[in-house]
Amino acid sequence: MKAVGFTRYLPIDDPQSLIDLDLPKPAPQGRDILVAVRAVAVNPVDTKVRSPKDKVEDAPRVIGYDASGVVEAVGPDVTLFRSGDEVYYAGDITRPGTNQEFHLVDERIVGRKPSSLSFAEAAALPLTTITAYESLFHRLRIDRDGADAGRSVLIIGGAGGVGSIGIQLAKRAGLTVIATASRPETVAWVRELGADHVVSHREPLAPQVRALGIEHVDHVAIFNDMRHWLDAVELIRPQGSIVTIDDTHLPMPMEQMKTKAASLHWELMFTRAMFATPDMIEQHRLLTFVAGEIDAGRLRTTLAETLSPIDASTLREAHRRIETGTARGKIVVDGFPG
């Protein structure tokens, strides 16, 4: 089967950073389903995993953490899907990735594809949707269905993949959304997605938010990096809550968090699959829920650009664009060649 991977961790402008491969077709066991992959999306995690480091793989490594496709075969313990079902999912970072024609994935982290979307439109959603959903509803414990309507959330990184679906989920839950964006096209994008207010992450955030007449926010979701930690701490209300998806590579003073008795939560959408937690199936449930909301017209895909076909050259270009840090929404690569 066709696949794209690498053995050496190289800069993306090196032709060996991602190479075309021919690998054996896997067979499902246990609760795995075998998916015939139709489209994949590229996320910042793809570029981080592939980024240059002093390491060489004995066998080619295949990455990729978003896919949509059709179930080809199922393992003996599978109960949620059958051959022919259309699915979308983000996979498991501890296993081979989605950049291959046929991919094994545990059924408990897979959802039924929105029937109203193309495979490319659906592939844009899983990783960022799981991340945003878990951040808002599982980590910050905001009520998904509106019991916390009227509360406020500052979404830092509003135009990115996670922010783009996070804005929609927060608005669906009835929250007032302040999103960050810095360029005219990204400001327009987050407003189109439902943001009530937009502030620039190129300037200090606290003065801009307060200029809106908002002294504190109930929640902060840091969906890019920790450069704005001090602003987040200043803006969070006493006993409010912050969630972040970034690493702690920058200083994070905690004194004011203690004074405010504010809470900090970490989100990594791979955690459930990595540790085979008893609630792994929550990802199946949330993806299926979101598919229903999309088909009902209450949420929309965050696809911004589609490239084709799924091969090493095209995936290198997608990685290059993600590495600029200026992507709006999601970049999807559609269809294996021939």
Description:
By secondary structure, the protein is α/β, with parallel strands linked by helices. The protein folds into two domains: 2-125 and 274-334, Medium-chain alcohol dehydrogenases, catalytic domain (Quinone Oxidoreductase, Chain A, domain 1), CATH 3.90.180.10; 129-266, Rossmann fold. 29% of the residues lie in helices and 27% in strands. Strands 3, 5, 6, 7, 8, 15 and 16 form a seven-stranded mixed sheet that branches. Strands 11-10-9-12-13-14 form a six-stranded parallel sheet, sandwiched between helices. Helix 3 (126-139) packs across helix 4 (161-172). The relative contact order is 0.16. The mean pLDDT is 96.
How much is the average pLDDT?
96
- What is the rounded Rg? 20 Å
Could you describe the largest sheet, including whether it forms a barrel? Answer: 7 strands, mixed
Q: Could you give the order of the helices and strands? A: EEEHEEEEEHHEHEHEHEHEHEHHEHE
User: Can you identify the CATH class of the largest domain?
Assistant: Alpha Beta
**Form type:** globular
Distance between the termini: 12 Å
Helix content percent band: 25-40%
Number of domains: 2
Count of DSSP-assigned helices: 11
Number of DSSP E strands: 16
